[in-house]
Amino acid sequence: MWLNLNVYRNAHHRELDAAKKEFTKRVLPLVEDLPKLERVLIAYILYTPTKRSCDVANICTIVDKFFCDTLVKAGKIADDNRKILPIIAFRDGGVDNTNPRVDALIHSIGPNTDLTLTEGPVS
């Protein structure tokens, strides 16, 4: 099953539960060597199998949900709330037709890190 918001919204809860368990099974070994993190920024990079247009957030939103839940389950972060994860970013990484994927870059940030992205509201 492709992880994306459309599938997530329409799938039966048993199908979603099976997808989340499979995701966790595959990702847990990849994060087991991470230290426990107090506060993080996560950036997701989407690599698609073709040049076909897609909605990056549609895919990365569900990957983020499953990934953050896996980090909590692994004991790498205490929770996936906004105090621990104040910034989550998505971006397109282009085409990789041999290894389509979403990479997660985890950056530890301190309690006093300036998280200002703009100087004011977008007008």
Descriptive report:
By secondary structure, the protein is of the alpha+beta class. It has one domain (5-29, 36-108): 60s Ribosomal Protein L30, Chain: A (2-Layer Sandwich). It has three helices and three strands, in the order ααβαββ. The chain has helices at 5-10, 13-31, 56-73; strands at residues 40-48, 87-95, 101-108. It has a three-stranded mixed sheet with strand order 2-1-3, covered by helices on one side. α3 (56-73) links the parallel β1 and β2. α2 crosses α3 (56-73). It is globular. The relative contact order is 0.23.
Search tags:
alpha+beta, 123 residues, 60s Ribosomal Protein L30, Chain: A, globular
In short:
This protein has helices at residues 5-10, 13-31, 56-73, and strands spanning 40-48, 87-95, 101-108.
Assigned CATH class: Alpha Beta
Radius of gyration: 15 Å
- Alpha-beta classification: alpha+beta
Characterize the main sheet: 3 strands, mixed
Provide the low-confidence segments as ranges. none
Overall mean confidence score, pLDDT: 90
CATH topology: 60s Ribosomal Protein L30, Chain: A
CATH architectural name: 2-Layer Sandwich
Shape: globular
Strand content: 15-25%
Write the layout of secondary structure elements.
Elements: H1 5-10, H2 13-31, E1 40-48, H3 56-73, E2 87-95, E3 101-108
